[in-house]
Amino acid sequence: MAGEDARTLFVGLTGGIAAGKSEALKAFDRLGAATLSTDEVVHELLTTGAVRDALIERFGDAVAPNGEIDRSAVAEVVFGDEEQREWLEGLLWPRVGQRVWDWRQEVERRDPPPPAAVVEVPLLFEAGMESAFDKTIAVIADEPVRVERAGERGHQGVDERTSRQLTQDQKAERADIVVRNEGSLDDLERELSTVLGRMGS
What is the pTM of this model? Predict the structure, then answer.
């Protein structure tokens, strides 16, 4: 198929804290979609010279012991400080956006094209990025399930009110598609397979 019909669907994936966004991204990969995590893009950017040097110049050597950026140290500096957070977002987000754009162009040149190009963006709606995507998906789960998962990962909690994130209910209201993830990984993959089929039809 040629023309517009052959264009790969561009999908933004987000969800509640510990709801299973990363597992959903892995499932989409297994289902044949092209996938990209903006968290991994940020992690990569923090190791590059320009971003690393800018952070050290702004925040001092304490955020880069042994010359490597410590993400938790940076988070401590910007948490609760709107000016510092806005500076950091101004540094990172344009670079993340460019990386996503370049990746999308590469995906659209693939032959055969994947059924979808899925980008995991934790702050998708908060950053106002939803208009960049053909479809948006929010992964959600009941709070007891999320609390258990967060505990298994060594996190203290899942209260979005303590972060910049919208609540998962707010994300679900704004997303085109909502996926509940409270069962097994196989259950999640089956649900996403159905979603992929519906989006492509």
Answer: 0.86
